[in-house]
Design goal:
Helix content of chain A is 42%, strand content 21%. By secondary structure, the first copy, chain A, is of the alpha/beta class. Chains A, B: Belongs to the ROK (NagC/XylR) family.
């Protein structure tokens, strides 16, 4: 009964097929048509059609032939990750990070500009501009070469790339980050909360690659969360998911204070705790208790496969992870696997790159690929 | 490039097309092929093929012709909701409900057996048997006529239909409900937590029909929750989602006690509060504060479109809903729309019917339709 399919069916099928081929090619250095067909489950003829179209559009290139065997060597194809560039930016309290990546998400150049939590809006935006300019220059690019930009920031972000609410940074509520970054890089700019981007990065390049349901805890000067549900970033109806910190009884508001009270710098407290300093050990224990209370609320709500702890404090995994597991065991019906982020400081900016790549990939599948103008 | 598609592609397409046609026909009394094609977006030829196959398999029947207009009147088709029957069961502390429904989910017969929260396992299971037997008999059916059964129960349920943990009912942990119900009705038996089923029912037939993200609160002798995320029931990695009640600081463990302290029966407290009795008003206020604390944790985690309050206490919407909204406003960054369930006591058993229907619909799309044996 499916001998006859409509134009709409076919165009959807073509998009899915093109996406499948790109994903398979992204996963290897090069593949033959036979290998692409096997990995995608597409027929040989479909695979040829898709690869031909992707060659024409510049997403795929020939990659030399396979020698050996009987007869003519098979042609090999590769994803042209060099065809385009994306920008990722992480705007934090202490630093601005900007990276340029290729279409595989490989970071080609990065820049870092130090800032302070006290800086006002204009000063922080100027630092963003410096980081982006430095990064583009280092990569030998201009803003027009960027196909899409992803930007991570603390606070609640709306769908248009504006910061709706930020308690952590002064004068940050209301800033239109998408418009600001578009002035330098006119391609689409996607803005997202830092905890959400770090969660995305952990699923893409981090310790949660095989998890479909994930709670990411951003443990640092600010405590935040990002949720992956059924393999997708869960944003919420107004992009305000994971904001468990707003409930005082769950401890995230005061969590940080235990460390500050014990020492001016959290890093010092963790170092002292590592060396057995009693006051520091007690402060870390109180911090972990509060972190775990909010985390337990997230875990009990979602029953995720995995909890990943990232953010600045994930460097102190050795003194954090075991007490955190014990506290989660205390409250949760089923304690999920607890892992420390391996991405550390890079998680948010990598998540920003992933956000930009998702946008680029959506556009190739819509047939609105920007590639044509670059060939 | 999609001129050539594989067998796998086509079979998936055929399943999607059959599903689309069934959904469209379920939504009306009868439709012409032209109307089906328009509503599904399928081509005329695809529509004809799909409808022919569904006619052969007994899912669809002719429904007389449309008169009027020029030429031969167009044939009309309808979904054969009478082709099969499903069973829904709700096992509670105070009652067992069993219903038989057709493939549209219309309830044809129902039975109710009173039980007590104190009853042991065997007694409660015997009551389940009585309710199911009475319901089947009333509908003129035997167990073999049931295509699928859905069962709702308090407690955590595993994927095989066993109760993993129940605090509310004595001797209920460990009971294999799927195996028990299969003895009477040998078709597949799906067992699920009552809060989760009520959430499903609200999206299907209740006040949340247009919500994609929903927090359902089961407010009654026990406080529970069910989550709909992105249009689907969110079960969690080990089917333990929504169990926020396990965290003492979120108040659900003690919520119920405020009402019991004020009066032996919660219904009495709500009635007294309605009439202005000061002690009752204070007890309801304390109950709502605790209910809202746990609910706020769910809302802050997920940022849902809507909160629906159901369960036994939803009958007292007039004294519950405004204080609940005020408490949510106090804690939530964005308070979602708050609605009282219109399904009341029927929500869990309707969710059980929906669960059974989902199973039947999955099987038609797999080509493993049980219809053939019934024609």
């Amino acid at each position: 009964m499916a001998g006859d399919v409509t134009g709409g069916d076919l165009s959807r099928l073509r998009q899915l097929n093109a996406q499948a081929v790109i994903r398979v090619l992204q996963g290897s250095s090069s593949l033959t048509l036979t290998e692409v067909a096997r990995s995608t489950g597409l027929s040989r003829a479909s695979t040829e059609d898709v690869v031909r179209e992707l060659l024409q559009k510049g997403w795929v290139a020939e990659a030399g032939a396979t020698a050996g065997g009987v007869g003519r060597p098979a042609r090999r194809y590769r994803f042209r990750s060099e065809a385009g560039r994306v920008l990722g930016v992480d705007i934090g309290g202490h630093k601005i990070r900007a990276v340029v990546a290729d279409l595989d998400g490989e970071v080609l150049h990065s820049a870092r500009v130090a800032v302070t939590p006290e800086m006002g809006r204009l000063e922080r935006l100027a630092a963003v501009d410096r980081a982006v300019a430095e990064c583009l220059e280092g990569a030998g690019l201009t803003g027009g070469d960027v196909w899409a930009s992803g930007v991570g920031t603390t606070g609640l972000v709306d769908g248009a790339g504006r910061v709706l609410l930020s308690d952590a940074l002064p004068e940050w509520t209301g800033v239109d980050l998408a418009a600001h970054v578009r002035r330098m890089c006119p391609a689409p700019v996607l803005v997202e909360n830092d905890g959400k981007l770090a969660a995305l990065a952990e699923c893409w390049r981090g310790v949660a690659r095989y998890a479909k349901d994930l709670v990411f805890l951003l443990a640092g000067l600010r405590t935040g969360a990002g949720l992956i549900i059924d393999g997708k970033l869960h944003r919420g109806f107004a992009n305000a998911s994971g904001e468990i910190g707003a409930l005082p009884v769950l401890g995230w508001i005061r969590a940080q204070e235990h460390l500050v009270a014990a020492s001016g710098e959290a890093g010092d407290v963790f170092a002292a705790a590592r060396e057995g300093d009693k006051a520091a050990v007690a402060a870390v224990r109180r911090y972990v208790k509060d972190l775990a209370l909010g985390a337990s609320a997230l875990v009990l709500t979602l029953d995720p496969q995995m909890v990943v702890v990232g953010g600045g404090y994930s460097r102190s995994a050795d003194v954090l992870i075991e007490p955190l597991k014990r506290e989660l065991d205390r409250w949760c019906i089923r304690t999920p696997e607890v892992r420390m982020s391996a991405l550390g400081d890079e998680a948010v900016v990598l998540g920003a790159v992933r956000l930009a790549l998702d946008d680029v990939e959506d556009r190739v599948l819509d047939g609105r690929s920007p590639l044509v103008s670059h060939l």
